[in-house]
Design brief:
2 helices; SH3 type barrels; 61 strands; mainly beta; about 900 residues; about 0% helix; eight-stranded mixed β-sheet
């Protein structure tokens, strides 16, 4: 009989954690492994099934991890490429005892010689134990960015979303036991919740809490627990540093806060935020940072990026070993504060031996530390200095010691800790408000004997091979409770769009912009871009959810020379904007760039945006006006109209009630377009071709008896819709068949009955706006599209250049569509544009072998693509 006892997650990354529950109960700052040969794979185990007993983990009959309890994680252990058998036995039982569960698994090397697997042993939908394999993406990204994904480890529950408490989506539609994508995030604080897919933060299933996201780290969020609440679902966050970027010199740098009087700080490298909320005594993972001279700036945690730095210094990041610990030492008050760099000795470390080093950051006297077996770690260690390394057999030790202060000796200690073989430990002696001793571990040469001692006993069964790919399979996410919500009723809308008037041309935007904002609304909802800062003003267009806008200023006092606009503004409403208590009282003047060129400047409500300043989120009105006081952003007279910034921009105004329109998403095969017709008939004149995946606003519907001809629509429903062309050149109304669309309203699924019936006589389609558009739209040449296919649950890396050494811009989930922009010289890489939910579009390069290229549903020859890499054509 299968026993429901345990789910183990095997994460093949470069992270090491101690075998403690603390590592699973919150976010711990952990560190990467440096050494890995081209024929090895790293595997980490996490006990993630609720109610499961503690177990001993065996691989090929060799004990590799004893006494792993629910909520605990092992370090990453290296294994040779090959086939293995995992067995689980009750903790403390004999190796000959019957296994509670066993299953074979394969570890295969990738093109680069690295493989980062997540293997989850958990109950499946039927209650039986099963093994699922995933892959963590540790490819380098630009400094100032991290990456996040989720693992859904709760059976029998619906898909979930991970989002911020302000509603901004992070990951959506993550399903139990199914691979999902990951997303790159700028460094910052993220207050996260888990919700049922499509639901709002107010109905959160689980509050994850604030996550301090630091640079060059993968954050794996594991949701575990029972849907029934016994035990209650919880979110566990594991951090894994990225690989170093081979295209530039880097040093693996751990940063420690050892100052006695400095507060929690945010750290900037060359003016880019890399760490947030570093507390006294905190030690970061070893992070790949640029080698050489780097300007480091410290600001009090949460301070604005343009505020005065508490400390700033140029530091030379170099170490012959390739790794070092950078420590903030001294006092800000007496001017002794500074950074000291201590190279880390990581060579020749045996997999059954732990290496320990002490750094004393206390200014008042020497420090002394020893292990519980009497091994001296530091004797009379001077202030602001590091000890020699001490190698000890792996095992469980406590640490005791003391340091001198003016009032006398201070005792410090660490309770029993498992010091893991093949691991480098840094112990930090510090004296802040509360003196203490902290530590961090870095995996150097962890193997199957690092938790047990002795010699490695694991042998490979059958060698495995893998074809080189550019694919990034990923991990998953969970939701503990199924919540079914009823979609709001659809508000009936007018079927006649608003009239179009030519907009004024306004001055061009600045070439650089510190303030940006991302439209942050429900899925499928667009933001009204208005001529003046009032909801009664004429709408210049709809800005799609997730679009980025450049902020020019906020609505201030009216310019008396211009007087009242044609849409009157409330007298005095903008005289004292600094008195606003919330962003819903503020209007912002912002620029929006159309996808194919041209910029529209308009007024938008601040509470519908996520505002950022130099990459830092501004979520507080007070912080916003601090930047106003510093002259970083100014008031714009509220009676200054919005309009086209240049002649190339086409203002496409929707109806005043457009935000209340239902949305129809075109659901056709990749590369196929949907006919937009003048009347509801397949014999009617075609006004435009709408690409698959496009969203249109549904104005009304009618019912037509389905025809019997071959290819005739089977649905009686036809929808009268409003369609803005992707390049902003035209706004067209017309009819589309209900056979080929998915209806939603404010992100919720609706039915045809929720759409109001059109009045008789039925409206006819027409071209409403456009630069010299003909009376009848002539469909433009269909775009060249690509369908990403990398296997179930896989991701394809979008890189910044056509090379496997290129930085990862973002992962693209299998099944996604991309727009093909061109190719490289030999056609092995495609230049594409990819639309990312909640982030706008990104361009970059993907490997050709994983993309099916079509136009209008037919295969498109790669050699006919434009070369956009600057290379010579080697295909024709």
């Amino acid at each position: 009989m299968a026993r429901k006892f345990f789910a183990a997650i095997l994460v093949v990354t470069l992270l090491v954690t101690g075998l403690t529950a603390a590592n699973m109960s919150g976010l711990s700052r952990t560190a990467p492994a440096f050494a890995q040969s081209t024929d090895t794979v790293l595997v980490r185990f996490v006990h993630a099934l609720p109610g499961g007993e503690a177990v001993d983990i065996y691989v090929n009959d060799g004990l590799v991890a004893p006494n792993v309890a629910y909520g605990q994680a092992t370090p990453h252990l290296s294994f040779l490429v090959g086939d293995y058998t995992l067995a689980l036995r009750p903790a403390g039982s004999d190796a000959t005892a019957a296994a509670l569960f066993s299953q074979s698994f394969n570890l295969a090397a990738s093109r680069t010689g690295y493989r980062q697997n997540t293997a989850v042993i958990q109950a499946d939908e039927t209650g039986n134990l099963a093994l699922a394999l995933y892959f963590d993406d540790l490819d380098p990204a630009n400094i100032g960015y991290a990456r996040m994904h989720l693992i859904h480890a709760v059976a029998g529950v619906a898909p979930v979303d991970l989002q911020r408490t302000d509603g901004a989506p992070i990951l959506q539609g993550v399903t139990f036991n199914q691979a999902s994508g990951s997303v790159n995030l700028p460094v910052g604080n993220y207050d996260l919740v888990v919700t049922a897919t499509g639901d709002t933060p107010e109905n959160a299933l689980l509050a994850v809490g604030n996550v301090e996201v630091d640079t060059n780290l993968l954050y794996t969020v594991v949701v575990m627990g029972n849907a029934s609440g016994d035990p209650a679902p919880q979110a566990v966050i594991l951090t894994t540093p990225f690989f170093s970027n081979p295209a530039q010199p880097e040093i693996l740098t751990r940063i420690a806060h050892g100052s006695g009087d400095a507060p929690a700080v945010d750290i900037y490298a060359n003016d880019t935020l890399i760490l947030v909320g570093l507390q006294p005594g905190d030690i970061t993972p070893h992070l790949p940072l640029p080698a050489g001279t780097v300007k480091l700036s410290l600001r009090e945690a949460g301070a604005l990026p343009n505020s005065d730095a508490a400390f700033e210094s140029e530091v030379d990041l170099n170490s012959d070993s390739g790794a070092a610990t950078l420590v903030a030492l001294g006092s800000l008050a007496d001017g002794t504060f500074n950074f000291s760099l201590f190279p880390d000795e990581i060579a020749d470390l045996d997999s059954a031996t732990a290496r320990i080093r002490v750094i004393n950051t206390v200014s008042t006297g020497p420090a002394n530390l020893e292990l519980s077996d009497g091994t001296a770690l530091a004797s009379g260690l001077a202030a602001f200095s590091a000890s020699n390394t001490v190698d000890v057999p792996m095992g469980t030790y406590s640490v005791t010691g003391s340091f001198d202060e003016e009032t006398g000796p201070v005792t410090i200690s660490l309770p029993d800790q498992t010091f893991i073989g093949g691991t480098h430990y840094t112990l930090l002696v510090f004296s802040a408000a509360t003196p203490g001793l902290s530590f961090a571990a870095t995996s150097i040469n962890t193997a199957s004997n690092s938790l047990t001692g002795g010699e490695p006993t694991i042998e490979v069964a059958v060698a495995a091979t893998e074809e080189p790919t550019e694919v990034t399979p990923v991990a998953t996410e969970a939701t503990p409770v199924v919540v079914v919500t009823t979609p709001p009723p659809v508000v009936p809308v007018a079927t006649t769009p608003a009239a179009v008037t030519p907009p004024p041309v306004v001055s061009a935007p600045p070439t650089t912009q510190a303030f940006t904002a991302v439209v942050n609304l429900d899925s499928g909802v667009n933001l009204q871009c208005r001529e003046y800062p009032t909801s009664a003003a004429f709408s210049l267009g709809l800005v799609p959810n997730g679009s980025t806008m450049l902020l020019q200023g906020f609505a201030g006092a009216i310019d008396p020379v211009d007087g009242q606009p044609n849409t009157p503004l409330e007298p005095g409403a903008f005289e004292n904007p600094e008195l606003a208590q919330d962003f819903n009282e503020i209007w912002l003047n912002a620029d929006w760039a159309a996808p194919q060129g041209g910029t529209i400047r308009c007024w938008v409500r601040a509470d519908f945006l996520q505002i950022t300043y130099k990459g830092r989120n501004i979520n507080d009105v007070g912080k916003f006006f601090e930047l106003v006081d510093l002259g970083e952003i100014d008031a714009v007279p509220a009676n200054y109209p919005g309009g086209a910034v240049d002649d190339s921009a086409i203002v496409v105004p929707p109806s005043q009630s457009a935000p209340e329109y239902p949305t129809a998403t075109v659901n056709v095969n990749p590369g196929v377009n949907l006919q937009l017709r003048r009347t509801p008939s397949i014999q009617a004149e075609s006004l435009a071709l709408i690409p698959g995946g496009s969203d249109v606003s549904v104005l009304s519907r009618t019912e037509i008896t389905p025809g019997t001809d071959i290819g005739a629509p089977q649905s009686p429903d036809w929808y009268f819709v409003q369609y803005a062309t992707p390049d902003g050149s035209a706004l067209i109304t017309g009819w589309i068949s209900g056979d080929f669309v998915i209806l939603t309203f404010r992100g919720r699924a609706i039915t045809a009955e929720d759409v109001p019936l059109a009045d008789e006589p039925l409206p006819t389609g027409e071209v409403l706006a456009g630069s010299g558009s003909p009376a009848i739209a002539v469909p433009t040449e269909a775009p060249i599209v690509g369908l990403v296919t990398v296997g179930t649950g896989g991701n394809l890396n979008l890189r910044d250049r056509p090379s496997t050494d290129g930085l990862v811009v973002t992962p693209i989930p299998s099944g996604s569509n991309v727009i093909i922009l061109g190719r490289n010289g030999d056609g092995t890489w495609l230049n594409v544009r990819y639309e990312i939910a909640g982030q706008g579009s990104s361009t970059g390069w993907v490997a050709t072998e994983f993309v099916t290229v079509t136009r209008s549903g037919s295969a498109f020859p790669i050699n006919n693509l434009l070369i956009t890499s600057g290379e010579v054509d080697s295909m024709n």
